[in-house]
Each structure stands twice: as structure tokens, then as C-alpha cells.
Amino acid sequence: MTVTSNGTTELIYKRIVLKLSGEALAGPQGYGIDPASAEVIAKKIKQICDLGIQIAVVIGAGNLWRGSIGVNRGMEQSTADHMGMIGTVMNGLALQDALERVGVETRVQTAVQMNAVAEPYIRLRAIRHMEKGRVVVITGGTGNPYFTTDTAAALRAMEVNAEIVIKATKVNGVYTADPKKDPTATRFAVLSYQEVLANKYEVMDMTAFTLCQEHGMPILVVDFWAENDLYLAVQGNHDVGTLIQA
pLDDT for 114-160, tens place per residue? Predict the structure, then answer.
């Protein structure tokens, strides 16, 4: 947050897209949906909601299905990817339940239409939900095979006029080297798109990253599981995470 000349506080970001991996819901067993993990995620998202920030969440399905497993055994890529899209809807419903339990009104939208369980993804409807203070969990990827949920997050961020894509990870930003292997590795507070490409830092898949670069969409890489890192990062604190921008 920033403090204006009249002493009031102003949000750095008014609307964000949070990209969560499916593995975030898996819990210690590493697969499936763990209600305890969903509850932790919901409470962290509620913290951000309580600041007055509008939130859309794009979630993956790696805890339920990885298309590469099927493809490596001869499955058609389109079939494998559509299975993954359906998996994201299952995760979205689990996250909606957890959010509603902590008092956050939530809507699940999906690019793969299944009207009995979730709304179809409609850009203006998603924006309207956020304006009313609801969290929108956007599932189904882009609705097309061959695209990752990273790309879906970048695309949806631009469609709903978000100000930033937050990539939730298990690492506190982008480092000069793998901090688990190199104790001398240092964290970057801010990077340019060009620096990420030149040094081949792994942030998002290349399609998603290029989309953000071409349209000037900032990316914030932050450790979602650290106690307050996400909460601090959305308020503009550069002591946590790495901000990537033009």
C-alpha cells in the first residue's frame, strides 16, 4: 500500500490474477485434494481479500492428472489436455468450498462448459463478480489443448484488466542459482523481461511469459507458503518475491 498526500492508504494493486498449481491442493501425500491444504490456501486468499484487492485465481491440475503421462504412453495430446482441464474444475470446486467456509463469497467459472457445476467463463461476468468483492476461480485452462494453465493465467489477467499476475511457488522469488543447491544464491527484487530471457530463468512457460512481455503485464513470483510473503508482496514490499516488468 502507499500513503497519499492526504494521509489515506491506497492499494498498489486493485485487481490481481493469482496462479496456483494443482499441487498446492495435494498436501503432504503429493497427489489428490487435501482439505487441510485447501483451508490454508483459502485463509491466505482471504487475507488479500480483506485488504480490498479483487482476486481471480487460475488453478492447475497437476495433483490429479498430468497430460504428459498419457502422451508418453501414446494418448492423443488433445485427450490428455482435456482431461487436465476437467481436473482443474475439480480443484476449483474444492477451493470454492474452502473459501466459502472461511467467509469468502466465491464463483467458479470454466472454459470447458459444464453448467451443472460451474458458470461458463465470461469475461464481463468475471469482472462484475470481482467488483462485488467475490473471488473468481477460473478453471478449464484456456479451453483449448496445447496450452498450459500458466498461459491461461496470463490470458485471463489481460482479459479481466488485472494489474499483475502473481505466480505462487515454493521459492521466495527468482534467484541467481538454485538456493537449495547453492547457499550463495541471491534473490532478485526486480527483473526485466529481457533479463529473465537472457539468463534463462524459469518463471512461467514461454508462451505465457511472452504473452505477458508483449502486453506489459507484470509478473510477481512469490513463496505462497511462507507465512506472510504473499500478504506483504501485494502491498508492494520488495523484501519478498521477485517482480518482473518492462
Answer: 999 999 999 999 999 999 999 999 999 999 999 999 999 999 999 99
Measured CA to CA, the distance from residue 170 to residue 239 in angstroms comes to 16
CA dihedral 193, 196, 199, 201 (to 10 degrees): -160
DSSP string, 64-80: T--HHHHHHTT--HHHH
Query: pLDDT tens for residues 18-76?
Result: 999 999 999 888 899 999 999 999 999 999 999 999 999 999 999 999 888 899 999 99
Is the pTM above the cut of 0.85?
Answer: yes
Domain topology for 13-245: Carbamate kinase (3.40.1160)
Tell me the Ramachandran region of residue 6: left when phi exceeds 0, alpha when psi lies from -120 to 50, beta otherwise.
alpha
Distance between CA 39 and CA 178 in Å, rounded? 29
The C-alpha cell that represents 102 in the structure block: 472461511
Q: What are all long-range contacts of 193-199, with beta carbons under 8 Å and residues at least 24 apart?
A: 193/244, 193/245, 193/246, 196/244
CB atoms within 10 A of CB 83: 17
Q: Where are the domains of the chain?
A: 13-245
